[in-house]
Amino acid sequence: ALCPEHLSDPARSAPARRGRAGPSPQPAAPLAPRPLREAAALRAMGFSQEQARRLLALQPRLGPEHREAAAAQLLLLGLSPEAAAALLERSPALLRLPTERLRERAEELRRLGLDGGRLQRAVSRCPQLFHVPRRRLEAAVRLLRERCLFTAGQLREVLETCPTVLLEEHRTLHHQFQYAYFRMGVRQKAMVQARLFQMPFAELRNRHIFLERRGLYETPHKGQTQTSNPKLKDILQLPEKDFLASLACATPEEYEVFKKLLAREEEEKEEEKEEEDVEALYAEDDDDFDSDESKTARE
């Protein structure tokens, strides 16, 4: 039997009731802050702590799934974590591309012959390849194969070393090829070896015409020249200082004066062409007017 004081005193009976209810539940462990969870996910992919920190700093408002998916796709291409992080830093817009788009574009580039290390080097040099429409890529490849007549092997090397050809305007690309082929007498194999498309067309033309006017380069006629032309590789790949000293035998001041004079020549040619076009237009109008007058007279 219980004593009356136990029945009347609720404070004394409370411990007994707590004892019968069992241990109180433990509070749930708090979730790690979102940046820590994202960093852990990137670390699990193979990124270092520093690389994960750099990736998290890119477009911080972006959802973690986009960042992780883009990083995963680049790793699947064979890029190292450091190369993938550097590529995303140079082109953070890749983070917003759908995962399926990244995957499809990688497959398209593989079909063009960029596989393995070639694909890694191409996208590292030109991350914009992921943004170019598929039809534009295909049109550039058709131009290089069908109109410039590069072999499949030569095309692969061009795309690996100069992937920006896939971004160029097709008219500009074809014009640069024609200039090297017809004006300079260079064949496709030498173009590939010299990495023709790495140099802007304007600078290629400046260097070639400068050599030509100094009597150091001659356009081959039926494959033959009276002089020994410098190799295209040397013309393109030598720094300007070395090009002038070893090939052109000229000073930087002479080259600068030449480029200004050449630019003036081009402006004058453009003005003459515009005047000829206007004169031709007026001549057509006069012919039409004369025809109308003759018709009226006959009537």
TrEMBL record:
Segments forming a coiled coil: none
Compositionally biased spans, kind Pro residues: 24-33
Keyword line: Transit peptide
SMART domains: Mterf
Compositional bias per record (Acidic residues), positions renumbered to this chain: 267-291
Region (Disordered): 1-33, 265-299
UniProt-recorded Gene Ontology molecular function terms: nucleic acid binding
Matching Pfam families: mTERF
Family: Belongs to the mTERF family.
Name assigned to this protein: Mitochondrial transcription termination factor 4
Organism: Catharus ustulatus
Gene name of the record: MTERF4
